[in-house]
Amino acid sequence: MGTVSSLMRLRGNPPAEEAPAAGDGEAAEAGPAFVREEQGVEQARITTRRVGRKRSASPAGPSAKLSRESLPQDTAKSPFRRRGESDVKICAFGEEWCLHKCYLCRSGYFASMFSGAWRETDMTTIEMQMPDENIDRESFYEALVYLYSNSIPIPPHRIIAVLSTACMLQLDEVIQQCEEMMKASLTADTVCSYYYSAEDYGLQCVQSVCRQWLLDNLMTRQNDEILQEINLDLMKELVASSDLLVFEVEIDLYTILKKWMFLQLEPTWSGSPRELLTAADLCFAKCKSDANGAPFLETDQGRAFVSVFQRVRLPYIICDLPSAQIIDHDALIPASWVSPIYKDLWLALLRAEQSRELGPVDIHVSDVSGTSMRCAGQLQRDEQCSWTWSGFNFGWDLVVQYINRRIIFRRSALNKSCGFGVSLLWQRKIAFRLRVISLDTKGTAVLRRDTNYHVLCLRKDQELEVISLENEDIIFPMYVACNFLYLPGGSGHSRESGRSPRR
């Protein structure tokens, strides 16, 4: 027979007929063998490129698998020790393996190849080229061993290489094993590479776990290496999410994005973490000067980042004077974005101060998921603590208290320990959602409680127990994250600002 050069693709291949069964004698002698080159054999070479899709299960089951029990005992123990009666030679990475179709057909890829639908079905020598740079000689070799022994070692630093090879060869059990290992070994060092690999290879569960890790840790860990690895599309998704743990308030997210944007523009920067913000400010100040004061996001360099900064919730930044001054001084964001928000905020304040309407009784999550104020406080120890997110736009001061493992909301307009109330109006309504999150040293959530969205209506000095953690095992520090939206009586939405927790 001739030799065929087959370019392996990430996705699967066309559905195959049932894989040919091996005879008893062939199975008894089966065992892949490694050879360098065979001299004196002149064969025709055919080049074929084949892009397929994942193979459908045959009547005998997915990929016509052979169980470990059906393997010869000596082959299962030492699969690469004997050549046996090889009926196919696989050439890859400059090496050759004398193998057996009956074992290769445990792979969906090879089962399709040898089913009769492909030109390679009757070929005795198949030359394979690897288009996926993650596949290397070692991972391919281990995958061949797996087809004979049903066992494959997956060291943590080799997960991506093994996964890419398993996806190409359609080894579902190996893919599942990689998936579990990725979820178990998720850290700051691996989260981005795992996320992108899960995206490439269609592991939606791993992708979701990585995304949640980033939502929990992006702002709490302040890891510059993670910022370097997050691409534009991923950052856009994180910033837009109401599940992002914004620690402490929205202006702090803006500061993180300044650092991230600088690192995307200067990937070789190697200063210390303490120098990063200063370096970013100097860089953008120079850009401002070179562009004659034009906002950075309107320059050629800055336009790529517009979609990310459009998802920053500016109303919760410019309602605070120091934060508004930072936005104005940096000149990253065009004035055309900000000016309409000032008008909306002023009208919202007037409604909050001069209207006695209570607002809607019911509210749907879709009404607040993209516009709510995001803020979070950190509890370092299991001790009584209180803080406030200022009432400028609520028309009240909402005090958050942690007492005896309970989170309590209190409206206390004249509470001296938590600041001065800006309104003595008798009653106000907000939509709120509270989350309590404890993270271990790897950044994995070991405690997560979520109230979902509710409408809160409090009079002066009235309080509400929002959540109780009396029966929970808590690891400190613990984060208390809130989403708020003021519900005015008239049309439109008001905005709210934030302050840090204080004891």
Count, helices: 17
Number of strands: 15
Structural class: alpha+beta
**Average pLDDT metric:** 80
Q: Number of folding domains? A: 3
Strand residue content: 15-25%
User: Which percent bin holds the helix content?
Assistant: 25-40%
Please outline the major beta sheet: 6 strands, mixed
| Rg, Å, rounded | 30 Å
| Quaternary assembly | single chain
Shape designation:
elongated
Largest sheet strand order: 2-5-4-6-1-3
How far apart the termini lie comes to: 81 Å
Low-confidence stretches: 1-32, 34-78, 415-422, 490-503
Structure keywords:
five-stranded antiparallel β-sheet, six-stranded mixed β-sheet, Potassium Channel Kv1.1, Chain A, 3 domains, Apoptosis, Tumor Necrosis Factor Receptor Associated Protein 2, Chain A, disordered C terminus, 503 residues, disordered N terminus, alpha+beta
Topology record:
Blueprint lengths: L2 E5 L16 H6 L3 E3 L9 E5 L23 H5 L10 E5 L2 E5 L1 H4 L3 H6 L11 E5 L7 H13 L9 H11 L2 H13 L6 H11 L2 H18 L2 H6 L2 H9 L9 H16 L7 H18 L15 H4 L5 H4 L2 H10 L4 H20 L18 E7 L5 E5 L8 E6 L2 E6 L15 E13 L5 E6 L3 E6 L3 E6 L9 E9 L17
Parallel strand pairs: 1-3, 1-6, 4-6
Antiparallel strand pairs: 2-5, 4-5, 7-15, 8-9, 9-10, 10-14, 11-12, 11-13, 11-15
Helix pairs in contact: 5-6, 6-7, 6-8, 7-9, 8-9, 12-13
Keywords: Developmental protein
GO cellular component, one term: nucleus
Protein name: Germ cell-less protein-like 1
